[in-house]
Amino acid sequence: MKLLVFLEHHEGAVTKAALGVLAKARALGEAAGVVAGADVRGAAESVGGPVYLADDERLAAPLPGPRVDVLAKLVRDEGFDAVLFAQSVLAADVAAGLAARLGAGLNWDLADLVEQDGALVGKRPALADSVWVDAGWSSPVALALFRSGAFDPAAAEGGSEVREVAVELEPHSLLAELVEAASDEGEGGPSIEDADVIVAGGRGLGSPDNFALVEELASALGGAVAATRAVVDAGWYPYATQVGQTGKTVSPKLYVAVGISGAIQHKVGMQGSGLIVAINKDPHAPIFEYADLGVVGDLHEIVPRLTELVRSRQ
Amino acid sequence: MKIAVCVKAVPDAATGRRIEGSSKRLDRSGELVLSDFDSHAVEEALRVREAVGEGEVVVVSMGPERAADAVRKTLAMGADRSVLVTDEALAGADLLVTARALAGALEREGADLVLFGQQSADGDGACVWAAVGELLRRPVVSQVSELQVGPGAVTGKRQTEFGYERVRAPLPAVVAVSDAINEPRYPSLKGIMGAKAKPQEKLAAADVGGAGESRTVVLALAPPPARGESRRVEDGSANDAAEAILEFLAEKRVL
Amino acid sequence: MRPSDYPPPWRPEEAITTPSESEPVEVDVLVVGAGPAGLAAAIRLGQVAPELSVAVVEKGKRPGAHLLSGAVLRPGPLRELVGEDVPSYGEVPGEGVYFLTESRSLRIPTPPTMRNHGNVVVSLSELGRWLAEKAEAGGAMLLPETDAQRLLVEDGRVIGVRTGDKGRGRGGEELGRFEPGSELRARVTILCEGTGGHLTGAALAHFGLAGASPQVWALGVKEVWRVPRPLRRVIHTMGWPLRAGARYREFGGSFIYPMGDELVSIGLVVGLDYRDVDLSVHDLLQELKTHPLVLGLLEGGDRVAWGAKTIPEGGFVALPRAFHAPGLLLCGDGVGLVNVPALKGIHYAVESGRLAAEAAARGELDGYDSALRESFVWNDLRAVRNMRQGFAGGFWRGSISAGLATVTRGRVPSADRPTERDADQDLIRTGRASSYPPPDGRLTFDKLSSVYLSGNRTRDDQPNHIRVQTDVPRALAEMWARMCPAQVYEVEPVEPGEGGRSEGEGARRPEMDGEAVGAEGEPGWGTEGEPGGSDGERVKLVVTASNCVQCGAITAKGGRLTPPEGGSGPEYSLT
Question: In CATH, what class is C3-81+125-214+315-383?
Answer without folding.
Answer: alpha beta
